[in-house]
Amino acid sequence: SSGSDENDVVVIGGGPGGYVAAIKAAQLGLKTTCIEKRGTLGGTCLNVGCIPSKALLHSSHMYHEAKHSFASHGVKFPSVEVDLPAMMGQKDKAVANLTRGIEGLFKKNKVNYVKGYGKFISPSEVSVDTPEGGNAVVKGKNIIIATGSDVKSLPGITIDEKRIVSSTGALALSEIPKKLVVVGAGYIGLEMGSVWARLGSEVTVVEFAPDIVPSMDGEIRKQFQRALEKQKMKFMLKTKVAGVDTSGDLVKLTLEPAAGGEQSTLEADVVLVSAGRSPFTAGLGLNKIGVETDKIGRILVNEKFSTNVSGVYAIGDVIPGPMLAHKAEEDGVACVEMIAGKEGHVDYDMVPGVVYTHPEVASVGKTEEQVKALGVEYCVGKFPLLANSRAKAIDDAEGLVKILAEKETDKILGVHIFGPNAGELIHEAVLALHYGASSEDIARTCHAHPTMSEALKEAAMATYDKPIHI
Ligand code: FAD
């Protein structure tokens, strides 16, 4: 343990924000301690978020392909079945390997790792209740709060992680539910809904808003929803959950139109509540040292990630901005660089967002709705994957690429990709946006053939001129 030796940097929370900040601080030569209460490093993302969800999305996709697509490619099996414990085992192994990997990185970079619950005693001292029942005081010249977020329930719904589950329970069901109701059509609900739909659950998504994933470009969203409907997911939009009855064998939901009106009921074996996440600062003692938060509990910081209390910083899901792992990591690096006296900056307008369904949806920059609202004149270039040779060759051609560029300068404002591997393809666009590239810049860049990346090039051609292949 660090005992009472003073650290240059103390990080509270070992998620993607905290562990990355800790490693970077150590790399910059700062004496660093990271405090984490969970028992394993990696935070929400590695333990109950990004990683286990992507493991199950991949496994369930393989099953679904084997069952429904392999035969048309000439690959035949007498039968295909799901071994759910094995599938969960594969996911758990991935999580265990990655969280242990971060412990290894801490050792390699000489980050001191303290297990336990951290609470502020003063702006430069954190008391840690250790899992063994002991207590330690960790001192630091700079303290970074990276305590992340936690699942949010809805009024009148109690999550028991068995029949009424959060994403955490939905990642660890012991049986495939016959009927799964997903409350909340954000990306987490749609990803988890996809997993169980592929494994055979009848999935109904109930959403209060008129649209799924509200932050998405409207045109892309429409095609995305249609694709999910083809995969047999049902959507009840503009609908609110008015009550939940768990007294019977099945959970009974009472639903009501968002605008009010006649109620209906819906039965489910399992209900997944995915109605957003809240910043997590319970027991941290923010009041004690006077750290300011906003109405929904997010810690307020300036452009240096500094809170109103000198020497206390905050990064990741616990501050405003996109609640994404890669954003938390960028925050962590920039925050520590500035503590070390260097420059650091994160542009939240250029954080890519990905939904890891099949096909995937990935975007960066502005949606068409946002561009319209800005009032700038713009050009749109689109290219369907149906006209992309690689997508056709592998018979996975649902989707499109859409580029928005400023009319006068051709500067790219936003890129939206709906298609297989969109989450990998988007980074060329992220780089383009960072460098202030025009659509012509992408269009005149030689892209390998046959790749799906050519669809981005053709969409760029369509933005300022004409595409070749359609
Ligand atoms: P967290 O990861 O929440 O880490 C905070 C850590 O701090 C936790 O481990 C917690 O135990 C610890 N902690 C809290 N308080 C204390 C304390 N007082 N003392 C000690 N330790 C404390 N994002 C993506 O970018 N891509 C995805 O594909 C993706 N998929 C997701 C899927 C699901 C199901 C969920 C739930 C989330 C997903 N996310 C994804 C979001 C992502 O997990 C978060 O944005 C990210 O984990 C935020 O990182 P963080 O470091 O700010 O906080």
TrEMBL record:
NAD(+) binds at residues 184-191, 207, 276. Its EC number is 1.8.1.4. Residues 351-460 form the Pyridine nucleotide-disulphide oxidoreductase dimerisation domain. FAD binds at residues 54, 118, 147-149, 317, 323-326. GO terms for biological process: 2-oxoglutarate metabolic process. InterPro entries: Class-I_Pyr_Nuc-Dis_Oxidored (IPR050151), FAD/NAD-bd_sf (IPR036188), FAD/NAD-binding_dom (IPR023753), FAD/NAD-linked_Rdtase_dimer_sf (IPR016156), Lipoamide_DH (IPR006258), Pyr_nuc-diS_OxRdtase (IPR001100), Pyr_nucl-diS_OxRdtase_dimer (IPR004099), Pyr_OxRdtase_I_AS (IPR012999). Pfam families: Pyr_redox_2 (PF07992), Pyr_redox_dim (PF02852). GO terms for cellular component: mitochondrion; oxoglutarate dehydrogenase complex. Binds 1 FAD per subunit. GO terms for molecular function: dihydrolipoyl dehydrogenase (NADH) activity; flavin adenine dinucleotide binding. It comes from the Eukaryota. Keywords: Disulfide bond, FAD, Flavoprotein, NAD, Nucleotide-binding, Oxidoreductase, Redox-active center. Its cofactor is FAD. Disulfide bonds join 45-50. Residues 8-332 form the FAD/NAD(P)-binding domain. The active site is at residue 449. It is an enzyme of class 1 (oxidoreductase). It catalyses: N(6)-[(R)-dihydrolipoyl]-L-lysyl-[protein] + NAD(+) = N(6)-[(R)-lipoyl]-L-lysyl-[protein] + NADH + H(+). The active site is a redox-active disulfide bond. NCBIfam families: lipoamide_DH. Belongs to the class-I pyridine nucleotide-disulfide oxidoreductase family. This is Dihydrolipoyl dehydrogenase. The lineage of its organism: Eukaryota, Viridiplantae, Streptophyta, Embryophyta, Tracheophyta.
